[in-house]
Design brief:
The complex is a heterotrimer of chains A (about 240), B (about 270) and C (about 240). Chain B has about 270 residues and is of the alpha+beta class. Chain B is built from five helices and twelve strands. A five-stranded mixed β-sheet of chain C has the order 1-2-3-5-4. A four-stranded antiparallel β-sheet of chain C has the order 7-6-8-9, with helices on both faces. Chain C has a two-stranded antiparallel sheet with strand order 10-11. The longest helix of chain C has 28 residues. Classes of the chains: A alpha+beta (about 240), B alpha+beta (about 270), C alpha+beta (about 240).
Chain lengths: ~240, ~270, ~240
């Protein structure tokens, strides 16, 4: 059963659909009886709702998103984390899993350290973060790199199907931040680089149909061998495994 | 997009780069003394006396040669002048701010100037129009288009290639003007290939042609301008140190890389 | 409005020079594009939306568009000293004004969208090529935009209105001399940029505007194709 309705590439100002029946979804606007694109991307129509799936553009922080960021500053009651947005994101002392003394903040995280955190709220003052849930914390080892945040859903796949394939073939722990930063940790550096290569392949072909099969093919062609599948918990925004 | 600071290679990735180097390996599969794929495309601007686009991996620079007449320097009344400038364009990287040239671009210009000048690649004595009064000035202008590390060596390749492609415009003695629509011949050059090759030190390892990720964790570097085994210029940069033994290794790496560049670059200039 | 005027390169009065457009030419940028018109080549790269520095320039109500236009020293016969000039500063501002009307920056308070235009090779019409490249690069970067912007230089050579002047035509000295009219407009026909140098009466000027409209239609198709071609739904992105 496929959900892929016919997709076309559209540019800003282009009329996607004409007719009163259609409704303007994300990335579009109704002008008279036309649905016009307000972004460069893939236009998709489903149940008369027309929207544009962006292929590029800045990350929009949302409550609940798991993100990866870098500590830029330590204040008296928390850490300022750069997650690639214009507003600063802040992790308060109260939102760490264990008690931290006020003079020991840099034991949890120093300036320059990378961490996996979750967005608690997005409000006028900025972005509030938490480190309390399972799978969050400072990153000590592995490789961290960046892709366009719009490609994250493809890297994760429907219900985590894509990320599972990468894990199976590379035996790596992979955490995908909704802000486009990805953390890979494996037993061997070769495995980590292999996983990174796979992810770059996915971002290049991100709008293709049947991508999941193509990625399995890619792995087989590039010498990948399916390892024992690990028991994993998949949630949206994806968390690292134990 | 948002975090320029977070783009700088993270500590964790830096650790991995160093760990992998311990096995003599690099992220993109290259050996420590191997250059990325080099592409040299001539004639990026038909208004230049000579111009070239150089890609080293994803790093891209364009270099152009322009010639103008000028009065010679008092201590060299019968020699042409040379001026090398590098512009790190903000379009080539999110890390570049608007404003006057920063140290990076100034250093690049000066390092490339040094090798071209000291190697006497350009026969400046043949660029005299009227002794003591009028000579040619050769301008080499370097522009960055995409920075993925090792702009310096890419710029050096571009300078050599652009000079090799350069022609001298006609100087109209009567009108005392340069006629850019007519050329009198190729720029007088010695038969040589003065490339600049920079060796970087990461931990205890020496590598050549770093990507942006690798260059971010480079602790010390040494740029050697040489041609056919003769060294004409040298500059050590960054705050780390080299032992004498390491410097010797650097020279060996430079010699090997020079041969690689010689082949790859000249093949594409035909 | 046909004329027997012979253009140096044999083009008809309403014929554009050979064009070429491509997106994605600067891997580091959030969006980038190249636009060529005849011998004029412009590239543009977009970075943003991102935090705006210096802080005092931030606009708390919406995002800011910041354009820079720069000609390479060797893009012209007589070398241009590297660095900004009064001309490049003016053209940078005009480019901002040409593009801003279509950008939707309300959601990007205190942020900036940087557009950097670089002229690689110049043969007249550089600001227009720059605007064409910049519009593509902005779309490519995923900036929310109401419409595309296309730009062309219309001219009057002696008494004849022509489109897309070459340098040779810009230097035309006979009769009434050349008049150079760079115009930019959205695809729906709103003029966002309009300049003039020369000598022309208002009736002919309106003819020039009409001609520009037709030419911008063609240019729009070139820009659209470049953006669409960069994505191959069956094979992947370029």
């Amino acid at each position: 059963m496929t959900e892929e309705h016919k997709r076309t590439v559209v540019i800003p100002g282009e009329t996607i659909k004409e007719g009163d029946a259609y409704l303007p979804g994300e990335g579009t606007e109704k002008q008279g009886n036309k649905i016009v694109a307000l972004r460069y991307g893939l236009a998709e129509e489903h149940n008369r709702l027309v929207k544009v799936i962006p292929l590029s553009g800045v990350y929009q922080p949302r409550r609940g998103n798991i993100v990866i960021g870098k500590c830029n500053l330590i204040t008296f009651n928390g850490w300022v984390i750069d997650i690639g947005t214009a507003e600063n994101a802040f992790l308060p002392i109260m939102e760490t899993p264990r008690y931290v003394a006020k003079d020991r903040l840099d034991e949890v995280m120093k300036i320059g350290d990378i961490c996996v955190v979750q967005i608690f709220s997005v409000n006028g003052r900025g972005i509030d973060l938490t480190m309390k849930a399972r799978g969050l914390g400072r990153i000590d080892e592995g490789i961290v790199f960046r892709i366009n945040s719009n490609k994250v859903p493809r890297v994760i796949g429907k219900e985590g199907s894509m990320i599972k394939i990468i894990r199976d073939y590379t035996n790596c722990n992979i955490t995908v931040g909704q802000n486009g930063y990805i953390w890979i940790k494996g037993d061997k550096i070769e495995d980590e680089l292999f996983a990174k290569k796979a992810i770059m392949f996915i971002t290049e072909k991100s709008f293709m149909e049947g991508l999941t099969e193509k990625v399995e093919e890619w792995f087989k062609e590039n010498g990948g061998v399916k390892k024992e599948t690990k028991k994993s918990e998949e949630k949206s925004g994806d968390k690292k495994e134990d | 997009m948002g975090g320029e600071e977070i783009d700088i290679t993270t500590k964790v990735t830096a650790e991995r780069i160093k760990k992998y180097l311990e096995q003599g390996k690099r992220f993109d599969g290259r050996k420590t003394d191997e250059f990325r794929n080099i592409i040299v495309e001539p004639n990026v601007s038909n208004k230049a006396e000579g111009s070239v686009k150089v890609k080293v991996g994803k790093t891209e620079v364009i270099v152009g040669v322009k010639m103008e007449t000028a009065t010679p320097y008092p201590d060299s009344p019968n020699k042409g002048n040379l001026m090398v400038t590098a512009e790190f364009l903000p379009l080539s990287s999110s890390r570049i701010e608007l404003g006057p040239p920063k140290f990076d671009s100034i250093e690049t210009g000066r390092i490339i100037d040094r090798i071209i000048r000291e190697s006497k690649f350009i026969e400046l004595e043949k660029l005299c129009i009227k002794e003591g009064e009028k000579v040619w000035t050769v301008f080499i202008d370097i522009y960055t288009i995409n920075d993925d590390g090792n702009i310096l060596d890419a710029a050096g390749i571009g300078a050599v290639a652009a000079l090799k492609l350069a022609k001298v415009p006609k100087y109209d003695e009567e009108k005392e003007k340069v006629d850019y629509k007519e050329y009198t011949g190729k720029l007088p050059l010695k038969e040589m290939n003065p490339f600049t090759i920079t060796v970087h030190k990461i931990g205890k390892h020496l590598i050549v042609d770093p990507t942006r990720e690798e260059e971010d964790v480079s602790e010390a570097r040494i740029s050697v301008g040489s041609s056919e085994g003769i060294i004409h210029s040298l500059q050590k940069g960054n705050s780390g140190c080299f032992s004498a033994e390491e410097i010797k290794k650097c020279f060996e790496i430079v010699e090997k890389s020079w041969k690689e560049l010689f082949k790859k670059v000249n093949a594409q200039l035909k | 409005m046909t004329s027997n005027f012979k253009r140096p390169d044999g083009r008809k009065f309403d014929e554009l020079r050979e064009f070429e457009a491509k997106v994605g030419i600067v891997p580091n940028a959030d969006g980038s594009a190249m636009y060529r018109s005849g011998e004029t080549i412009a590239i543009a790269a977009v970075y943003g939306p991102k935090k705006m520095h210096p802080q005092h320039s931030q606009n708390p109500e919406k995002g800011t568009l910041r354009c820079t236009y720069n000609m390479n020293s060797f893009s012209v016969s007589e070398r241009i000293r590297p660095g900004p000039s009064r001309r490049s500063t003016e053209i940078s501002k005009i480019t901002e004004w040409a593009l801003e009307p279509v950008l939707m920056l309300d959601k990007f308070q205190n942020m900036v969208v940087d557009v950097h235009i670089n002229i690689i090779q110049a043969d007249a019409g550089t600001r227009c090529a720059g605007i064409n490249a910049a519009a593509m690069a902005l779309a490519h970067a995923g900036i929310p935009m109401k419409d595309m912007v296309s730009s062309v230089s219309v001219g009057k050579l002696d008494k004849t209105i022509v489109v897309d002047l070459s340098k040779e035509e810009e230097d035309y000295e006979e009769g009434e001399g050349p008049t150079d009219i760079p115009i930019s407009m959205t695809h729906s026909g709103d003029i966002t940029h309009f300049q003039l140098d020369g000598k022309i009466d208002s009736k002919q000027l309106m003819e020039a505007v009409e001609l520009a409209k037709k030419s911008c239609e063609q240019i729009y198709e070139v820009q659209k194709k470049a953006l669409k071609d960069s994505i191959d739904l069956t094979g992947g992105e370029d």
